[in-house]
Structures are given as structure tokens and as C-alpha cells.
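Researcher: I'm comparing several assemblies side by side, and this is the next one on my list. It has 666 residues spread over two chains. Same procedure as the others: predict the full complex and return the structure.
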Amino acid sequence: MAEEFLVVKDLHKSFNEFKAVNGVSFSIEKGEIFGLLGPNGAGKTTTIRMLSTVLGADSGDATIGGHSIRRDAEAVRRIIGVCPQDLALYEDLSALDNMVFFGRMAGLNGDEARAQAMTNLELMGLEDRARGKVAKFSGGMKRRINLAIALMGNPQLLFLDEPTVGIDPQSRNHIYENILGLQKKGMTILYTTHYMEEADRLCQRVAIMDGGQIITLDTPYKLKSQIGSPEQVTMEDVFLKLTGRSLRD
Amino acid sequence: MKNLKHIWFIALKDLKIFTKDRAAVFFFIGFPFLFIILFSFLLGGVGSEDERMELHMVTLEAAGGLSHQIIGAMETMDKSQLGPGAPKMVWDRDYDEARRAVEDGELDGFIAFPADFTQALMTGSGTQLEVFADAGNVNARAALNGLAGAISSQIGTHQVIINSSVALMVEGGVIPADTASINTAVQQIMNELFAAGAAGAEASYVTFRTEKVGEVEAENPANFVIPGYLVMFVFFAAAVTAETLVRERQNHTLERLLATSVRRESILGGVFTGTALRGLIQIVIFWVVGILAFNVDLGLSPLAVIILSILMVIMSSAFAVMLATLARTQRSAGSLATITGLLLAPLGGCWWPFFLYPDWLQTIARITPHAWATSGFNKLMVFGADFSSAVPNMLALLGFAAVFGAVAVWRFRTSAA
């Protein structure tokens, strides 16, 4: 049996009366790409914010690499990388400055941070734009920098919150390849997306959330099998069947 | 150690972002000097030195007369040796030329010794000093009259001494009672008395000194204009950087930082340190330019001025961080910074000298840190106070900084996420 790297147990979080996350439990194996899907407001981002220790949980707990997010948040932060849904960059600085800064924040020394920044920029195909001001980058380039920063400090678990939103197919494909490359190196990835084909292509297992709860969790193949022939049914069909067709905010 | 490193990296990052924005750099450093130049001009003239009063003297006597000795003893040879407020004594050689200069308005006036000055003194026939002054220049006339009075009074004292001495000498048989011997003795004593005066001997047993009482205007307006604008712009510039932390939150970089092993207090410390570093750069530029270009005098205790400046920076940075934790959006942070900066500056004596405010307004103004800072600078740089006089102002700024800092930490802990 594979080692469970992330274990989430009955996690709850409310904002006033609104229950954003309501008893979420799942686990992710080491080296797995795990998809967390759901319509807007399902609780995906809140779950990721709690797991990345930015937001405190009301109750429940999770362990990452054996460290509790509630009792040992600092140890958790040392082994995770976060690529937030929104671009989290200093636009007035260069790509290299951004990466070196976050590398230093992740505990690297100056030389390590610069070396790793160049490696990651190369990985993202941006090595020739290292000294370019981020503000002048295209949307796709910014997304790639956003992901590259999350890799600074060699995290063991990567949270990718909709990393491909709003970019062209070329940049998206480049990011897919990078994610698969990271998995081959043994990195564990928790991935959220609204693009169902992404989840189908990248994730070994997928959990679909709605109303703050996980309503189903399985491999894409098995999820598709639940409603028809896996060759003919898409993940979008599964998603819409489970979460309904009504509009969400 | 790790936390200190994080604080330092965040501060350096903020400084780097700041230097990329040329408009911001101009606003922080260039813009204040436009104000300073304008207000220094309005409040007394840019770069003009305080003009020392000159008192001119002329003698019509031939060389070797006593008037030559008196003027020679009084003439100012080295202006740098003069004490504060002491007039410069000038010996004009030509009476007619000096008179023409007064008539042409080139000279305020002069004192003239008559041609028979020594002879009159020796014979006891009496003589008269002439004060020739521009009727419209009341100050020069009064000063020349005062000087003439002082000279005649001094000579009168000498005359009494000489007469008494000669009388005693005749009575005691030291010198014969003939005119020639008496004239010789008078001449000798007179020479000795004036020679002693020229050598710096105390000419009078009763001396006086002038002490300024109450609040008077500074000699150089830059001495209160520059500190005022330093306080205003250091505070205002710091307050504006409150947007930094709000921007971190809005740009989601704060969330990214919170997901690293950086402590929340380190993030706050980094923003504070970055703001403080900018403030320190500002005050260094302010004082260096102030001293070199505006002839600012740091007073008796430059150390106190420096400490007060640093505390001003610390207080302003703490205020900026507090503002950042209170504001929810960049716009509200910017608005709060502008409102507080522009309201507190005039109240706190940054636009006009604090010491000119009425007492009731000075009392109210003490609720602002600006007032403590400007009144501290005024004490040190305008009224010549020593270090200890500025200690209450330093403590007050430290108190403001502690309160602002405590609020910032409390707010950040409860609202960062």
C-alpha cells in the first residue's frame, strides 16, 4: 500500500453562518496528482487555504508528511508549495527577483535561491526573460511564473489552485507537461480546476466537492463509468450530473 | 536569526520596488525640497546670511592723535571673531567720501572725531564727536548715538582719572607745577590708558550681557522650515506606504508569504523596516541638503536632532504599519494617509512655526506626534536648547510609536488571513 502523504480528517470552516467547508475528509498518496473539483463556492479554495495553514480550521485536522496543520503549522509550511488561484507576484520586480525573494522566504540561501530560480525559469521556458519586469509579461507567462515560484524550496506537496485559468492552449499545455514532470520526480500534487479535461488528463484520483462537502471521490475512469461508457462519457458529464446544471455565483 | 533575515529580505524587497517607481522617489525626496525652497523664500529669503550691523568711524585728526588710537583699538580686524549680535566696526579714512556715501544712501552713517580731539582733551577745553547719519535709518542713528555716547563716557572717565592723577603728582612733588610738565604727564597717562584699552584690559568694572527672553524668530528661516517639512514629509511618505501591506493582501502575495515559514510578525517587521529605511534615507538627504544648501544650524546638540529625527522615522513607520492593518483597500489606505498627513501637519507646526501658535492651540496640538517633533526641533535649532530639553519630545515620539506598533500587531494577528 502506498504511503499517504496528506490525510484530511473531518475539516470544518464557517464564515459567520456560512459553512464553507463542512466535514471534508480524504487522503492523497505520495507522488499522486489528486484533483479537487467543484463549482464556484464549493469550498475548494477554503480547503486549500486551511491545508496550506493560511487559514485556521474551526475543527478537524490534517497531516502533511506526518505534521499536523493545527499543531505543527511551521513544519507543514516547510514542505509545501502554493500556487494560488490569483497571480501572487510583485509586478514591479523582475521574474528572477520574485523567485529569489520567495526562495529566500522558503529558507534557501542566496546562491541556492538564484540557482533554483534559474532552473525553474528554464523549466517554464522563461529563462531568457529572467530579468524582465513581470508587469510586462503576458498572462500565460505570469501564470508560469506563478507556478515556478511555488516550486521554490523544493516542496514535497504542491497545491495548485486553478493554475491554468485564463491562458492560451500553448501555455496550458506547457504547464501540464511540467506538472507531469514534477510528479515523475516524486512530488505530490493537489490540483483544483474548472477544466474537466485537465482533471481527466492529469489526476489519478478526483474528488468533487459541492456545498462544502465531498460528494464523490474516485479515479476519473471509475467516475465516468458510473454514468456510462468511460470512452464516451466526459468528466464534464460526470461533474454536471453530480453538481447539477443550475448556475452558481 | 531566521526571523531577522526574513524581516531584512522583506524590507529590501520593498525598497527595491520603491526605487523602481521614479515618481514615488521624486515625491519622497524631490518634492519636499520644492516646498522648502518656496517657504524659506517666503519666510525670509533663500540662502541670505544674517547681515551684521556695521558702525563706521572717521577722524579728521592728523596721524598720531588719540582718536587714531581709539578707532584703531575698536576697528574690527577679523569678523569671524565677533560674538553673536556684535557690530562690525569700520574705519573709514576719508571724511568727505564717507559723507557722500551717506548722502547717496550707500552708508547708514558714521561717527567723526574732530581735528582738535587730542588737543581739546589735553587742555580740558572739551570737544564734540559728530554723528552723521541717514535721518531715515532710525536703527543706524540710534546705534551710532549709542556708540558716540559710550566713547564720550569712557573718555570722560579717563579724563577724571588723568586729572586726579596729575593733581596728586603735582601735590606730591612728583612733577613740577609748570604747564609743560603737566602736559607731558597728561599725555603719558592718556597714552597708557588707551594702550591698555587697546590691549584688551577691562575698561569698565560694570559690564552687561544681552539675553533674549521669550520666543523670538529664528535668524535663518530654514532652521524651522526644514524640520517642519521633514516631519510632514517623513510622516506623509511613511503613511502612504501603508498601501504596501494592503497591496500585498490584494495582490495575494501576502497569502503566499503566509504559506511560507515566515512568521506574521516578521512580515509586519519587514514592512516596518522597509518604511523606516526609506525614512532614514529621507532624513539623511534632508539634513545634508539643509546644512549645505540652506545653512541649517543643528544647534548646541546635533546628537539630539539626529535622535529626534530617527524617532520621528520610527514613529511614522509604526503609524504606517498600523494604518495598513486598519485599511481594507489600497484606496482607503491612500485616503487615510492623505487625510492624516494633511490634517496633522498644520496642526503639529509643520507649515508654520509651532512657537508662533497661541498657547491653547499648542496644547491641543500636543495630541499629534508632529507637534512633539517640531517643538523638539524648534527647541534645539531655534532656541539653542541642550539635549536634556528635547528628552520629553523624544519620549513622546517613542510613546506614539509604541502605541501605533501595538495596535498594528494586534490588528495584523486578527486580520491577516
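Model: For your comparison table: Chain A has two domains: 1-45+58-65+157-244, 90-155.
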